[in-house]
């Protein structure tokens, strides 16, 4: 199978067809129509074997994960996902492997009403680059730079499970079989908080998705908003799997530093706080308050039961030595 045979067999004519796609796969560019009074949100992520995923990941999980992490970026902006393009680098063509990979992509794309409109295939070390596009009403996008002193800090769900899955595989951390299934699903089949992101438009003052770790990603909001924060670490939500597998202090590196959670971290003015449950509960999302924005120059103060708590702030950073 050659490059264009691969594209025609696994991508062209598959998945949903959106009415706003004027020209999809098959030409030099795709053509789409952006709705009136909307802005185009664009994000790009590359996933590299051995850096972002284990070499033995199932192809279906890899296809899902590659799209999910990009849709999570759109969710953090409050955007509606619409179109994606896929650049796929493969060492060789294994028809069954590619079939399962593209099945994973098409499943999550159809769930979120997203059309794959183009991309590229080439030979080389295994990697996937996704460019995801979405639309957001003009002036309504959530950004990292809007947090104000007095705003409350929230997350949309439990943290640390993906990191626990990675370390259970790398270091053999003891995790019960029923919990191992849960954390591996969190790692390989993350659920981007698309509906929650759109619900937060007009309520949240800033937002980001948690990909590099809670403290690292909160730091991005603080830097751009020119504020500081206090976090009550006992309020950070964790799953039954996390609580059953590790004691409190062992959990901290996973819930504060590890990342790969793809929950939303967002700030909300006090005047909007009472509306959160009404807005988010209909999407099965629980708003958990973990701290508050303070004045300052980007510092994060950690508290445990009201007392200052010392912990090394560290998140994932490319070109460090850390790899999966």
TrEMBL record:
Catalyzes the ATP-dependent phosphorylation of thiamine-monophosphate (TMP) to form thiamine-pyrophosphate (TPP), the active form of vitamin B1. Pfam families: AIRS (PF00586), AIRS_C (PF02769). Residues 26-135 form the PurM-like N-terminal domain. Mg(2+) 1 binds at residues 44-45, 120. Substrate binds at residues 52, 260, 316. It comes from the Bacteria. Mg(2+) 5 binds at residue 212. Mg(2+) 4 binds at residues 28, 43, 73. ATP binds at residues 119-120, 144, 211. Reaction mechanism of ThiL seems to utilize a direct, inline transfer of the gamma-phosphate of ATP to TMP rather than a phosphorylated enzyme intermediate. Belongs to the thiamine-monophosphate kinase family. Residues 148-297 form the PurM-like C-terminal domain. One of its GO terms (molecular function) is ATP binding. It catalyses: thiamine phosphate + ATP = thiamine diphosphate + ADP. This is Thiamine-monophosphate kinase. Mg(2+) 2 binds at residues 45, 73. SUPFAM superfamilies: PurM C-terminal domain-like, PurM N-terminal domain-like. One of its GO terms (biological process) is thiamine diphosphate biosynthetic process. The keyword Oxidoreductase does not apply.
